[in-house]
Amino acid sequence: MSHPLSPFRFCPVCGAHAFACHDARSLRCASCGFTLYANASASTVAVIVDEALRLLCVRREREPARGTLDLPGGFVDPGETLEAGCLREVREETGLDVRVVRYLFSLTNVYPFSGLDVHTTDSFFLCRPTDPRAIANVRAADDATDAQWVPLDAVQPALFGLSSVRRGMERLLADRWWTEDGERHHGR
Q1: What's the distance, CA 16 to chain centroid?
Q2: Cβ count within 10 A of residue 87
Q3: Domain coordinates of the chain in residue numbers?
Q4: 168-172: average pLDDT
Q5: Which residues contact 145 (CB under 8 A, 6 or more apart)?
Q6: Is the dihedral of CA 154, 157, 158, 162 positive or negative?
Q7: What pLDDT, in 10s, does the model give residues 127-139?
Q8: Residue 73's closest CA among 176, 169, 3?
Q9: How far apart are alpha carbons 52 and 88 in whole angstroms?
């Protein structure tokens, strides 16, 4: 396995070609002393369930995993909280305003982007539409080509292209049903 920063050969601070391996996840410039770390990028995943126990799924417009199912979400912008990033991504991809009900869990992922493997920590949040009537107006936008409500009992994790989302769906479906107050149900 190569160093996660191996494509970077020049120091981004001074431009020197003295950028070398410092440890397993960083490079250090021998000229100016700057150290660049390969830290995980923060990403969010919105698990949006309506009152009819349907999950809002989108279809990926771009690589990686183009054309496969996904859940709304994406990278958190600098200066943005995880929750704010989650709400923004849902609005951008579906036009739906949601509220974060609770944090569920996080999973690691490797996201190939522009020739690099971006290591991410994907935070999953249970979300509910702020206006239940608005679910009829959901539309795919931004980097989603389709948005659809799928009954939870019909969700197939294997159809989700990103490994962290697929693993997250497997984990969520193992609990079978969940509600806002955390009470689990094993039927309708």
Answers
A1: 35
A2: 23
A3: 1-39, 41-177
A4: 96
A5: 58, 59, 60, 61, 67
A6: positive
A7: 999 998 898 999 9
A8: 169
A9: 24
| Higher-pLDDT residue of 116, 39 | 39
Burial group, residue 61, by CB count within 10 angstroms (0-12, 13-18, 19+):
middle
Within 8 A by CB and 6+ apart from 164, the residues are: 45, 107, 108, 109, 120, 122
Q: What are phi and psi of 165, to 5 degrees?
A: -70, -40
- The fold for domain 41-177 equals Nucleoside Triphosphate Pyrophosphohydrolase (3.90.79)
Q: How far is CA 86 from the centre of its chain?
A: 9
- The residues, ordered by sequence, that sit 6+ positions from 136 with a Cβ below 8 Å of its Cβ are none
This prediction has a pTM of 0.88
Pairing of strands 41-48, 116-129: parallel
